[in-house]
Amino acid sequence: MKPSELNIAFAGSRMDRADRLRTDASALDALKGPRARLLLLDGLAPQLGDDGGLAWGSLADADPQGELVFLGLLEGAACFAEVKPALWQGRVAGPNFRQLFGMIAPDDLAIYGGAKALVDWHARHRFCARCGSPTMMTKGGWQRNCTAEACKAEHFPRVDPVTIMLVELAGAAEPTVLLGRQPMFPPGNYSALAGFVEPGETIEEAVAREIEEEAGVRARDVSYVASQPWPFVSSLMIGCHAWADDDALTIDRNELDDARWFTRSEVMRAFARDPEAPLQLPPAAAIAHQLLRWWVARG
Amino acid sequence: MKPSELNIAFAGSRMDRADRLRTDASALDALKGPRARLLLLDGLAPQLGDDGGLAWGSLADADPQGELVFLGLLEGAACFAEVKPALWQGRVAGPNFRQLFGMIAPDDLAIYGGAKALVDWHARHRFCARCGSPTMMTKGGWQRNCTAEACKAEHFPRVDPVTIMLVELAGAAEPTVLLGRQPMFPPGNYSALAGFVEPGETIEEAVAREIEEEAGVRARDVSYVASQPWPFVSSLMIGCHAWADDDALTIDRNELDDARWFTRSEVMRAFARDPEAPLQLPPAAAIAHQLLRWWVARG
Questions:
Q1: Is A251 in a helix, a strand, or coil?
Q2: By the number of CB atoms within 10 A of the CB, which of A69, B106, B116, B277 ranks highest?
Q3: Mean pLDDT of B163-179
Q4: A residues 141-160 near B, CB within 8 Å?
Q5: DSSP B225-239
Q6: Looking at the predicted structure, is the pLDDT value of residue B68 above 80?
Q7: Do B224 and B291 belong to one domain?
C-alpha cells in the first residue's frame, strides 16, 4: 500500500483557494454578491444539510458584527466562513472529531476542517501579541494587522507541525511496533507517539526526541510516510516511521499512561475488531490509524 | 546521496532539550547557579568567542529586567538565552543569515538557531492575542500565559511549516528542474519554489498548490526529501520533490521575478561556479541548495 492510497481525513478539499484574490480587495468585494456561499457553523461545528453534506447559506445569513473569511472558489461560487462575535466573546468548544467523522463526506470534511482552523484562529487573535492593540482582518481573512500606528505588526494563520511516528523494532521475529496510550484515551486504546516540532529541529530530530522523551527509546533512520491537516486546533500531523534496536522502555508517566510493543498479528486482530485483541486502534480519522494500515500492509 | 547525508544548516544541535525540567520550577531554579551558561547575543545576532564559536557568559551577565529561556543541557551545564527588554521595546532586525553561515560551526549554528527563534518569539508575544492583556513567561520559556484572570490563555512558541520543492519535468531528454527567483534575490540567482503550509492541507497538497500558483504547473507524485529548521523568523522548511508532465509556465509576477527550467548540466555548472552558468545557486545554508545537491547526485 502506497502512502498516497491512505484515507487521510481532512485532506482532499476540492476548494480552489484562489490566493491571488485575497490581495485584490475590489475583486473580493465583487465576489460578495448574491451567488456567494456562506458555510453555516453552529459555534465551531458544521451544520449539515438534508443530504448530510455541509450546509451553505448566503451572505445575508451572516452577522453584520462578524468577520468574513474567504475560503476560495467552489463550483464557480465564492465561499466564505464567518467569525461570529460569540466566538471571540466567549469560549466556544470545538466539536468532538469522533462525532464529525463518518457523518460527513471526505471532501466536505476537508473544506470544513480548513475553515474551522481559520475561523478559530481569528477568534483567538483579536489582539496584537506584540503590543496588545486590537487587530483587524485583512486579505480576505488570511492575515490580521495590528491597528496601532506605532506597531502595525502583521499576523498570519497558524499551523503547528506535529510529528507522529511508528517506531519499529529491528531484528524482531515478527514485525513489532511501539504504541502508547494517553490517560485521556478510552480504555484499551493505543496510538502512535506524537509531539510538536520545536524551534531549531528537523522533522527527523523531533521524531527521535519524542521517542526518547516519552519511551526512553533511541530511534534511527526516520522516514516520512504521510501528513494530515488536523483542525483541533490547527496542526499539521507529519506521519513518520523509525527504527529502534532496543526494546527496553522508560515511559514518561507524565505524558503516557502506558507504552508497549505490539506485533503485527496483534495489530491485525485489532483491525479485525477481535474482542480478544490486546489493543484497540485509534479512530480511522486519525493519521495514526492510517499509518498502522500502511505498516500492516507493508508486511 | 541519501537525504540524511545532506548538510542541513541549523540542524544537528547537540543540546539536550531536557523537556522534563521545563515543568519543574524548583529544578529550573536549582539550575540557575554559577555553572549555568548564558548564550551571549547582540540584539538577535550571536556573539562569537576568540575561538570563533558561540560566546557564553554566566547568568550574572543577564539584564535583571529581561527573561531567561532554558535552552537545555550541554556538557552537563544548564544553558539559557535572554530576552532583553530592548528586544520587545523596539524592533531589532535579525542578523543576515549569509553573514552567519560559514562563520559558525554547524553544531553551534544549530544551538544559535533554536535559541534565536525562541527569543524572537518571546519578544513578539508580550501580549495575549486573545484578550490583549500582558502575558508572562512560564515553563522555562516554552510557554507564555495570559495574566488576565478571566482569560488565562496559554501560548506556545510558533513554528511555521513551509514547503519548498524541486519540480522535475517527466520525459525530458536530460533531467530538468523548475527554479524561480524572487525580486529580492541577487541577480542571476535561482532557487526552489516555496510557500507556507495553510490550514486544511497536507504537505503534498501545499506543494502542488504552490507550484500551480507560482508557475501554473500541475505537479504529481510529491515526495518528501529532507527538512530544516529556519530561524528567520521560525520556519520548518519541508523539502520535497514533485513531477510535472508539462513544461508550460504561467508565472505569478507578484511572487516571482522569473521561473525557468534548468537542465542537470546547467545546475552542475552552477555548482562548479562556472561564470558562464545560466544561474547562480542559493547559498549552501539554504535547504534549496541541499535539495539541488541531492537531485544532481541522484542522476
A1: coil
A2: B116
A3: 98
A4: 142, 153, 155-160
A5: EEEEEETTTTEEEEE
A6: yes
A7: yes
Is A230 in the B-facing interface, judged by CB distances under 8 Å? no
Residues B294 and B164 in one domain: yes
Alpha helices, H only, A45-164: 85-89, 97-100, 106-123
A69 touches chain B (CB under 8 A): no
Q: Are strands A176-181 and A258-263 parallel, antiparallel or unpaired?
A: antiparallel
Mean pLDDT (whole number) for B72-87: 96
The single-letter DSSP state of residue A245 is S
Mark which of A73, A108, A124 sits at the end of a domain: A124
Domain residues for the domain of B276 are 160-298
Confidence of residue B299 (pLDDT cuts 50, 70, 90): low
Same domain, A179 and A117: no
**What does the radius of gyration of chain B's CA atoms come to, in whole angstroms?**
22
User: Could you tell me if A295 lies within 8 Å of chain B, comparing CB atoms?
Assistant: no
Q: Among partner residues A131, A159, A254, which is closest to B127 by beta-carbon distance?
A: A131
Please tell me whether residues B235 and B164 are part of one structural domain.
yes
A7 belongs to a structural domain:
yes
pLDDT in tens, B196-221: 999 999 999 999 999 999 999 999 99
- Final residue of a structural domain among A124, A151, A179: A124
A109 close to B (CB below 8 A): no
Residue ranges in chain A modelled with pLDDT below 50: none
| Number of structural domains chain B divides into | 3
